[in-house]
Amino acid sequence: ELGIHQSEFSFPTVKHERNYIQGNLELSETGVFGKLILEGWCRATAADVKASLATGLRDLNVSISTSDQMILHKFRGKLDRDSVIGEMVDAVKYARDNGVNTIGVNAEDASRTDLGYLIEFALAAKKAGADRIRYCDTLGYDTPMSIRERIGKLADKVKMPIELHCHNDLGMAVANAVAGASAAIDGGVDAYINTSVNGVGERAGQTDLVSCIL
């Protein structure tokens, strides 16, 4: 009823969510959600995309970490910068080849990612067929000034829609999201803002839906 564009409502590779996913997809087919797009979140691997498609979902956000800190301490030598891009590209191509309607690519920990590499990652996503790039301030690391500068440069170089995913560790999720979206629009690309009801969710919380709209 608020006119929200999309809802990232599920983790389709989690087996116990299967009935929940299929129930909501059936409701969506009846038109009760209007034009709201129901999207699932999965890791940026072809295997995760394949498992997600088995639930009936046809709109996905695929996610992989991009900062050197995450590559070193999360992947522990299993991936490097080149293979992170390779995994993501394979996932996007598999999704595009198998009937996914909209594909968002998440750069987890984008705010701590080397900007040159982030641009390379986003350009690879665009070439593979992604519809937008999600800039994740995973640790609430940004400020309105820093995110505006980084998103402005990203928009200028990549020329594709940017999705803002901000966390509230420093109490600036709403300010960061609005500043980042403003920079994307000023850079000539569409902007999406991820929010949650009352800012609840994921550790320190996220951008609050109503505050962001206001």
How would you briefly describe this protein structure?
This protein is α/β, with parallel strands linked by helices and 214 residues long. It is 43% helix and 19% strand. A seven-stranded parallel β-sheet has the order 1-2-3-4-5-6-7, with helices on one face.
Report on the architecture of this protein.
With 214 residues, this protein is of the alpha/beta class. The chain contains eight helices and seven strands. β5, α6 and β6 form a beta-alpha-beta unit. α2 (46-53) packs parallel to α4 (81-97) and α6 packs parallel to α7. The longest helix is centred in the middle third of the chain and has 17 residues, at 81-97.
Kindly estimate the percentage of residues that lie in beta strands according to DSSP: 15-25%
Looking at the chains present, what oligomeric state does this protein adopt?
single chain
Largest sheet: 7 strands, parallel
Unreliably modeled segments: none
What's the β-strand tally?
Answer: 7
In round numbers, the mean pLDDT is 97
Category from helices, strands and their pairing: alpha/beta
Rg from Cα? 16 Å
